Give the backbone structure.
Amino acid sequence: MKDNHSFDSIVTHPAALEILIRALLSIARLAVTLAIALLVISPAGTAQAVEIAPFLGHRYGGYFEDANSGASFEVADATAYGLVLDFDLEPGRQIELFLSRQDTQLETAGTFTGSPLFDLTIDYYHIGGLYMLPGNGRVRPFLTGSFGLTRMDPHRSDLNPENRFSLALGGGAKFFFTRSLGVRFDVRGIYTALNSDSAVFCSGGCVIKVNSSGFSQAELSAALMLRY
């Protein structure tokens, strides 16, 4: 019980969340800066160590149940887009930075169609690793794992954004046309942690008092991949 309360105090404390957000954004900026620096200073013909992959995909899922009313809410399926940066650590292993955004809606869950409540942006800021599986030639299957921050930003002036910890596991394959150009396909499952007694989307009152320990989404994406 003590651990649950400690976790909830961390994810809901504004100062702690502000520090976490700044740290993750700093990591993202540093990764992009390193990638650009390597592009500029690396001479032709030397071993390269950075992969840049802007992606486009679709994200599914995200379900909440209100503990007070029993009403159900769900995140509408919608397009996702973002950037993956991979840095070689050793042969077959990479450090990975995963940044993804979904512009969607929170809806009441119905048998056939739900009623939209408000527009919602869900961002993931993750850092983790990628492990290459044995492949043939230019086709390289892989597994990924990451952790970081989920930011849920309701587009309604009377509601506050939510920042929560999250984990992701996934896999896919890279297809190289040349040594420096290819495409990659990913599937990820992303779990965002919530305490079962926490409330979300609050400002004065709260839209939902969550009756679960978290919510899950799945993301499918395709990316153009540049390796330098």
Summary: The domain at 2-227 is CATH 2.40.160.20 (Porin). The longest strand covers residues 116-132. The radius of gyration is 19 Å.
